[in-house]
Amino acid sequence: MNVLATVEALGGAAVLGGEIRSETDLIERVEEGFSPEAIQHLMRLGDLSEAEMGQIIPRRTLAHLKTRERLSAEQSDRLVRAAEVFTLAHTTFGDREKANGWMRDPNRALGGKTPLSLLRTGSGARLVEQILTRIGYGVYS
After folding, report:
1. Which tens digit of pLDDT belongs to each residue from 79-105?
2. 141, pLDDT greater than 80
3. In the chain, how many domains are there?
4. Is 141 inside any structural domain?
5. Which residues contact 122 (CB under 8 A, 6 or more apart)?
6. In b/e form, how buried is each residue of 87-107, taking b as 16+ CB within 10 angstroms?
7. Residue 76 falls inside a structural domain
8. In this structure, what DSSP letter does residue 105 have?
9. Is 38 among the domain residues?
10. What's the domain range around 35?
11. 37-57 confidence digits (pLDDT tens)
């Protein structure tokens, strides 16, 4: 994982609550909770609609976030996980549009589910990362 790419994908130090130079810095910021503005950055990164963002953070929660000052640690962690997968997809495909399209296409290696639909859990995100890594190495997935 490239911490700097993840941090930039979520809006940088200003949005995430301070300078982040390492994994441990990122963990500290996650525990403190990000600014809700990080959601907008992730939505731009993945060209996500509100409905699609609702697959990562439940829509009901998104509605309440508009009035809250900070995201919870769990919500911040979900954003990090999704940003990591999207940045890996962009790197793997070398094209943002192609990568974002792949995230929405049902995938046989995922039991017909879309990669995007699996980002709500750590296990699902790891599976998507494994498939992206295989694609990066030229293994059909």
Report:
1. 999 999 999 999 999 999 999 999 999
2. no
3. 1
4. no
5. 81
6. bbbbebbeeeeebbebbeeeb
7. yes
8. S
9. yes
10. 3-136
11. 999 999 999 999 999 999 999
